[in-house]
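Ex. 9. Protein: LysR family transcriptional regulator.
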Amino acid sequence: MELRHLKYFLAVAEELNFTKASEKLFISQPPLSRQIAELEEELQAKLFIRNNKKVELTEAGKYFEKEIKTLFQNLELISAKTKKIAENVSGEFRIAYISSIYSAVISDLIKHLKKQFPYVNFKLFEISTAKQITALEQGKIEMGIIRSPVKSPKIKSDLWFKDGFSLVYNKKSVQIKSENDILQLKNETFVFFNKDYAPHYHEVLLELCAFYGFTPKIIHEANNINSIVQLVKNGLGISIVPSNIAKNNHDPEIGFVELKKVNLKTDVSIITSREDDSEITQSAVAFLLPQRP
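Predicted structure tokens for LysR family transcriptional regulator:
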């Protein structure tokens, strides 16, 4: 059974007249009759009742017509989806981000992209900066959101925003009124990012403590900003986190003090492949850049 058999059948079923159907299909009547006969033989079912006065569908023919119309509708949808996927470069777009980026912004990005590219499957991954750079170089993700710097000739980096730092503490365990009281915390237990997981960020936190005149007593380490904040909430230490986290956390048990005296910030950047000029990537970057937290 070939596609032409089905098209010929639908034409005859619609016209209920072999002459009109053949004219519609731009073929002569004998070949059309032959194709219908071949179809009936293959199905082992009579589809039409033919006599000198009229052509009618049999019960089997009526059922076959209904199913074939549904089949062709599905084929049209498949064709449209295939075309859309081809236009959108691929059927999958992978975005990685660091844990310290406020998730609502990422959620808004996905909603925005889904409206523009409804046939693309968008996937999100929470990955460290170092691993994002490697994944992008290897083509395992299409876009990343990291804390700079980036030292790769294969990657294009767009500054999204500059992020400051804030001390985070459990209000029941620690009493601190302002930035001026930070030195009194030198004997407190600190919770930091793991040095191997985020080496640059780890060094920045040590620089911050040095600026305020002490070396932190790091007892607990974690690979996720939310885990760090949770450890602080549980009274297991204090920490220094990006100010972006402080702006978006309203837990009454946790306090934040922004570190304004030190002129130290981190660049949060959007990274993409230098060879990627796809419409989806351009749309994603264009959406994020005006929305600086």
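Check your answer against this statement. The chain has a mean pLDDT of 88.
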